[in-house]
Write a structure and sequence with these properties.
By secondary structure, the protein is of the alpha/beta class. It contains 2 helices and 6 strands. The chain has a 6-stranded mixed β-barrel. The longest helix has 30 residues, at 2-31. It is globular and about 35 Å long.
Length: 131
C-alpha cells in the first residue's frame, strides 16, 4: 500500500511539472508567431487513408499526429499555429504533406478534432508561422 501511494504521489507531481512546462511553452509560442495574410480554411483528412500511405515528405502517414498538408509556400517542417476563428481554439501542426489549394490547410484527423467538430468539415482559420 505504501509503495502504491508513493508511486501515485510521484506520478501526480510529474504531471503537474509537465502541465507547467506546457503552459510556459504555450506562452513562448504565442510571442514567437508571424501571421500569414489571407482568408484561410482548414479541412481534415485521414479517417479513410490507410496507415501504409506516406506523406509527400516521405514519412509514414499518421492520422492522429499534429501535422498538416499545406501549400508549397510553407517548406516541409514548418510549424504553423492554426486558430479556429469561430471558437478561438488553436493547434500547432508541422507541415509534412502538400495540398491543392493556395488558402487551404488540410489538418490530420487528430489535429482538426482539437479545434473543431468533425461534422463541421471545413472551418475558417487564422494561420501563423511559429518561429
Amino acid at each position: 500500500m505504501k509503495r502504491f501511494l508513493l508511486m501515485a504521489i510521484i506520478a501526480l507531481s510529474s504531471l503537474s511539472i509537465m502541465a507547467q512546462e506546457t503552459k510556459d511553452s504555450t506562452a513562448e509560442t504565442a510571442a514567437k508567431t508571424t501571421a500569414v495574410s489571407g482568408n484561410w480554411s482548414a479541412t481534415y483528412y485521414g479517417n479513410t487513408y490507410k496507415s501504409a500511405r506516406r506523406n509527400a515528405n516521405g514519412e509514414p502517414f499518421n492520422m492522429n499526429a499534429m501535422t498538416c498538408a499545406a501549400p508549397k509556400k510553407f517548406p516541409f517542417g514548418t510549424r504553423l499555429k492554426v486558430t479556429n476563428i469561430a471558437n478561438g481554439k488553436s493547434v500547432i501542426v508541422r507541415v509534412c504533406d502538400r495540398c491543392v489549394g493556395q488558402s487551404i490547410i488540410d489538418l490530420t484527423y487528430g489535429a482538426f478534432g482539437k479545434i473543431a467538430s468533425y461534422s463541421a468539415g471545413r472551418v475558417k482559420v487564422k494561420v501563423e508561422i511559429v518561429k
